[in-house]
Request: fold
Amino acid sequence: MAFLFWFSLLLVGFLWRPQLVVAQQNDQSTMLALEKELVVSGWGLNNSSYCSWVGVRCRSNLSMVEELDLSYRQLRGNVTLISELKALKKLDLSYNNFHGAIPTDFGNLSELEFLDLSWNNFGNLIPPELGSLRNLRSLNLSNNRLTGKIPDEFQRLERLQDLQISGNKLTGSIPSWVGNLTNLRVFTAYENELGDKIPENLGSASELRLLNLHSNELEGPIPKSIFASGKLEILVLTMNKLTGNFPELVGNCKGLSNIRIGNNRLIGNIPKTIGNVSSLTYFEADNNNLSGEIVPEFSRCVNLTLLNLASNGFKGTIPQELGVLINLQELIVSGNSLFGDIPKSILRCKNLSKLDLSNNRFNGTIPEDLCYTPRLQFLLLGQNSIKGEIPHEIGNCVKLLELQMGSNYLTGSIPPEIGRIKNLQIALNLSFNHLHGPLPSELGKLDKLVSLDVSNNQLSGNIPSAFKGMMSLIEVNFSNNLLTGLVPTFGPFQKSPNSSFSGNKGLCINPLGSSCGGSFSPDHEDYHHRVSYKIILAVIGSGLTVFIMVTIVVLLFMMREKQEKAAKAAGIAEGETVNPPLIIAGNVFVENLRQAIDFDAAVKATLKDSNKLSNGTFSTVYKAVMPSGLILSVKRLKCMDRTVINHQNKMIRELERLGKLCHDNLVRPIGFVIYEDVALLLHQFLPNGTLAQLLHDSTTKPEFEPDWPTRLSIAIGVAEGLAFLHHVAIIHLDISSGNVLLDANFKPLVGEIEISKLLDPSRGTASISAVAGSFGYIPPEYAYTMQVTAPGNVYSYGVVLLEILTTRLPVEEAFGEAMDLVKWVHSAPARGETPEQILDARLSTVSFAWRKEMLAVLVVALQCTDGTPAKRPKMKKVVEMLQEIKQS
Ligand SMILES: *[C@@H]1O[C@H](CO)[C@@H](O)[C@H](O)[C@H]1NC(C)=O
Ligand SMILES: *[C@@H]1O[C@H](CO)[C@@H](O)[C@H](O)[C@H]1NC(C)=O
Ligand SMILES: *[C@@H]1O[C@H](CO)[C@@H](O)[C@H](O)[C@H]1NC(C)=O
Ligand SMILES: *[C@@H]1O[C@H](CO)[C@@H](O)[C@H](O)[C@H]1NC(C)=O
Ligand SMILES: *[C@@H]1O[C@H](CO)[C@@H](O)[C@H](O)[C@H]1NC(C)=O
Ligand SMILES: *[C@@H]1O[C@H](CO)[C@@H](O)[C@H](O)[C@H]1NC(C)=O
Ligand SMILES: *[C@@H]1O[C@H](CO)[C@@H](O)[C@H](O)[C@H]1NC(C)=O
Ligand SMILES: *[C@@H]1O[C@H](CO)[C@@H](O)[C@H](O)[C@H]1NC(C)=O
Ligand SMILES: *[C@@H]1O[C@H](CO)[C@@H](O)[C@H](O)[C@H]1NC(C)=O
Reply:
């Protein structure tokens, strides 16, 4: 008995003592010191063991820290102490504010398997000591400020599977030993300054699945070795200086879905083996020196959705075989030397939305059954040698947004059926052809069209007065035809320079006939006006969902449809997971919502049309129910793949910053998910829709018509939200009633604030879109200044106020020619109308008090929409004025 007793005591002692001793001597003191150094909130609040602190996990039988997850905590300080936690296997410090050099002592953490230091400001060289981490499987140093070379000591990391070093300032070359890392699966080094050749054995020893090296200075050929294992799934090498041929060995990789090799210096043919890449969905090889014919083998890639071969040296015709690609949505082959007919078979790809054949040598005719495909939005045939007439069937292309047929050899007359393409908004260009006959008055029905160019033809007759129906026109060109008569009096025509009408002998600009005959002098006064209009022209379509994707691809849309189909086919509705997309990054900024949000569920929600809540200028919004029951609104950005891929880092930083902005009247992002090329922003779900719906939706039942006090509170809330934004120096890009959301109590929250931060105004397309906003809300000075300003925001807010007061839309046909709500209200006195005739009579006649308040708010709205920016009040002042009105 005694023996047993002592024995068991011994056993207990044996089991217990090390735990206490080791914990006290080692990690306890380190953890307490660390808590002090980093000031981690929630740590050390009570006397509980550090093993139960947030983000800490200890080894089961000992109190030694095995996992330390301090991600997303806005921490700064000296992390060197962590290297004392000898048992550490997993260390995640991502998304903090750590700076300085990465501690060399991290190299002593011999048990470490997972090290994530991404999204900090770590600078200086990468310490070679990390090469001692023999157990390391995953190393993520991306998105810091690291400089120098990739240390050669890393070749000792034999178990490494994931190596991510993108988004730094690394120089030198990709070392050849990377090719000897036998376990490597993921290698990203994009957005650095790496030069020299890609090692010719890269991937040969491993099962490389993802290789992303875009935006470096890499030279030499694409190594065959990356295709050796046949496991590659994603290959992104865009924006380097790569030369040589695209390797035939690509045919090895059945699972390769994305190939992006655009903007390099590649030569030679696309290998026929591309047909073996059966998973291929996205092939982008534009802006290289590729040549030869477009290989018919692409037709074997049944999932091919986008084929972009623009700006290369391709010759020959487009293979008929491509017509079998039922998933093809974009075929972009502009800027090559292709000839022959417009490929009829391609026009039968029933999902085709963009066909860009421009700037080639196509010399056939336009087929009659042109719009067999119901989804065609972009038909770009300019700068070719296309002959024959424009078929009347063109009128069947009802979804077209842009029709470019300029600089061809088209004959015959303009088919009046074009007037049936009500969606046409970006441009109708028939210039530099041999078209004759009259201008069909039916074109006047194109009320969304922004640019009309029929110049340099042999068109005759009058400009029909029905053209006044083209209310969205900003740019017109009728020059160098045989037109006669008087140019109709119409705003957009008046604003155009005389040169838009010149070269028509019998055409008179004013009724006195003093400027007929086609020799008008250039109109200098209008010049400035015109240029600036032209710039916004590129972005504004009248319905304004047009954020033009002239060069970039509508991948978001495409992928969604594709996945939707896949989802339907495989019954995703039953909750099965089908090829869940590889989520590249994701985060929830709000601590207490982290558990409740499931990224996969958010992604899935956006794949179903029935979840769609709204479609805005810059995004589409979906409703997503999380498994936890939480309802989110998920915003899918329309900022195209390149923006997402190339500016991801910046984008995420901005989102995190915005996530911290706290104001009752702002919709701030609570998180994001990035997968493939898609960026999703997560927001709280607001059940009452938008202010625009509340005010203008004709289906709103009378009992839900907002009364005056509700409207005034909404007006004040919006003003407060904007005043706060201006206070923190953020200018909103797109203020409109459609971007004001309403919560269950009709409290307004201004949305789309992230857009102002995500679109970098220093970049091409974004700078244009930056002056866009929504039609009817754009301050007049934007056209000249090209700059979004706080006074510009005040103007747009003023338009919202007018909507609230009048229950009218910012642009309505009833306002007459070239008039919007602002002009209509400001010109009321000139028309001899009293303010009461402007206000919504259903409200202003209810009580004397309401009427008085409405008149006072009208004064504020008039000040906000003053034509002179300097005369508009500041947002803060607007809040004060409105609150005074409410209290009195
Ligand atoms: C104290 O520690 C326990 C774990 O033992 C934890 O659940 C609790 O939240 C901590 N209390 C405070 C105030 O941090
Ligand atoms: C924590 O423990 C120390 C001594 O170990 C004691 O002095 C202190 O009162 C305790 N604090 C709490 C909140 O229990
Ligand atoms: C603790 O557990 C690990 C494995 O979980 C084992 O290798 C180690 O020997 C154990 N230590 C003690 C002191 O029991
Ligand atoms: C962090 O602390 C260590 C000593 O613990 C010191 O050697 C190192 O210089 C410090 N690093 C920084 C960036 O202050
Ligand atoms: C790490 O190892 C080096 C060399 O073995 C040693 O000099 C240093 O003190 C160690 N650091 C820690 C924190 O143990
Ligand atoms: C860093 O890279 C690893 C390995 O690829 C990955 O698991 C981890 O999620 C990445 N960290 C962040 C913050 O994206
Ligand atoms: C990579 O491995 C090959 C074959 O094992 C070897 O010949 C070569 O020297 C290694 N390269 C490097 C840089 O270690
Ligand atoms: C095409 O895509 C669908 C859905 O993603 C997938 O199920 C199918 O296997 C793909 N086909 C090929 C040949 O990869
Ligand atoms: C189109 O051009 C090609 C090559 O120049 C020529 O062979 C062919 O006959 C032309 N086709 C038509 C219809 O003119």
Remarks:
- The pocket of 2-acetamido-2-deoxy-beta-D-glucopyranose (ligand 8) is lined by residues 278-279, 302-303, 566, 579 (CB under 6 Å).
- The chain has a mean pLDDT of 83.
- The first strand starts at residue 56 and ends at 58.
